[in-house]
TrEMBL record:
This is sphingosine kinase. One of its GO terms (molecular function) is sphingosine kinase activity. InterPro entries: ATP-NAD_kinase_N, Diacylglycerol_kinase_cat_dom, Lipid_Phosphate_FormReg, NAD/diacylglycerol_kinase_sf. SMART domains: DAGKc.
Length: 403
């Protein structure tokens, strides 16, 4: 592992509008001192508007930065990831270690990182302090990315979730309660439960078999296995440069392996090749499963453990398991039973409640074709174009500071 002549440099992007509008105060009260004490140099970048961060990381000289850290909700990281994957040098850019500090109202990735550390659940400022410590420790894991294809929008990338139905509606309808912080989701859930809807559509998926996973692990041998790739540490812990060690260590290089036959429609664009997805208007291959139901209350695809600070939606998820954890709830569930599910989800116990309407399966790709002309689909909590959507996982494509 070689050394760089300068200390670690972190770009810390803060969205002053996120959550209750307190991200900057939280930075001043907690994070600035923690980073200084850990000897981590950082440059504060305060975003001025939506997509500011996305445009900035798209153009940035990334050789100047050892890590990009977001202090906001999940929405700002979504911008950063998409900015990185829009670059001509995306393959290198997306390997820049990413960090997150909870400063928004939807802090699902921060809660997931805290959960992966094995610590008992916390919320609010305790979660911030925990994530601050994990950031200072600086261990890096690989993180899966999910590519999302929509009808007419360019392909997107997602690190957290794809939602349709109840969860997507609550997420977006609760934006107006943003000043309540994370409680906005509880309020939104209660409001939507009172007028529970049925969402009609066709859902299909490519199951994640054990074969697929081991095949994938072999294909990308150096890129995934935390147990084979020693984690990299920030200089505060090990006296070596973060970024340099990440980028100069050949064992961490992402090897891109094309699988055959190639069915992608996105070859010319930056970003990884989508070998699992036929064009959105083409039939699906025979190895896909079409869900028999067409009436749903929700569809939720998760690739991190937490859906919100206090919702452990995918207890088995790890950052780089190469799996989309797919949940759907069939129509016919009563509002009380749905509420029970969400209450159980606070402890990750919803899968053991024996709810006959809840289905959980692990997949590598999925396609959803809503029948209704209007509605809400969210990617990482952000609204995207409504209509047919498909997604596929790219195992361990990015790198996340998990501590
Ligand atoms: P929250 O969890 O509170 O929703 P997010 O990080 O998800 O916080 O940010 C909410 C939205 O604000 C995202 O769509 C993000 O792109 C956008 N955004 C980022 N910076 C700014 C800014 N300076 N002003 C307004 N919106 C911003
Ligand atoms: Mg958000």
């Amino acid at each position: 592992m070689s050394q760089m002549s300068r200390p670690c440099q972190m770009m810390l992007l803060v969205n002053p509008q996120s959550g209750k509008g307190q991200a900057l105060t939280l930075y001043n009260n907690h994070i600035q001192r923690m980073l200084n004490e850990a000897g981590i140099k950082h440059t504060l970048v305060i975003t001025e508007r939506q997509n500011h961060a996305r445009e900035m990381v798209k153009e940035a000289d990334l050789s100047q930065w050892d890590a990009l850290v977001i202090m906001s909700g999940d929405g700002l990281l979504y911008e950063v990831i998409n900015g990185l994957l829009e670059r001509p040098d995306w393959e290198e850019a997306i390997r820049t270690p990413l960090g997150i500090l909870p400063g928004g109202s939807g802090n699902a990735l921060a809660a997931s990182i805290h959960h992966y550390s094995g610590a008992s659940p916390v919320t609010s400022e305790e979660l911030l302090v925990s994530c601050g410590f994990l950031l200072c420790k600086g261990l890096v894991s690989h993180m899966d990315m999910v590519s999302v294809h929509l009808c007419s929008s360019p392909r997107l990338f997602s690190f957290l979730s794809l939602a349709w139905g109840f969860v997507a509606d609550v997420d977006i309808e609760s934006e107006k309660y943003r000043h309540f912080g994370a409680v906005r989701f509880t309020i939104g859930t209660l409001v939507r439960l009172a007028s529970l809807r049925v969402y009609k559509g066709r859902l299909a998926y490519l199951p994640a078999t054990r074969d697929h996973n081991s095949e994938e692990a072999l294909r990308s041998n150096t890129m995934l296995c935390k147990d084979r790739v020693p984690p990299v540490t920030l200089p505060a812990v090990r006296d070596s440069s973060f970024h340099n060690s990440c980028h100069s260590n050949n064992s961490l290089k992402v090897r891109r392996v094309e699988s055959t036959p190639s069915r992608s429609v996105t070859k010319a664009l930056p970003g990884p090749h989508d070998s699992l997805l036929p064009p959105l208007d083409q039939p699906l291959p025979d190895d896909w499963v079409v869900v028999p139901e067409e009436d749903f209350v929700l569809m939720l695809a998760m690739y991190q453990s937490h859906l919100a600070e206090d919702l452990l939606a995918a207890p088995e998820a790890t950052p780089d398991d190469g799996v989309i954890h797919l949940f759907y709830v069939r129509a016919g569930i009563s509002p009380t039973a749905l509420l029970r599910l969400f209450l159980a989800m606070e402890k990750g116990a919803h899968l053991t409640t024996n709810c006959q309407h809840l289905v959980y399966t692990k997949v590598r790709a999925l396609r959803l074709e809503p029948y209704s002309p209007k509605g809400i689909i969210t990617v990482d909590g952000e609204v995207v174009e409504y209509g047919p959507v498909q997604a596929a996982v790219h195992r361990g494509l990015s790198r996340l500071i998990t501590g």
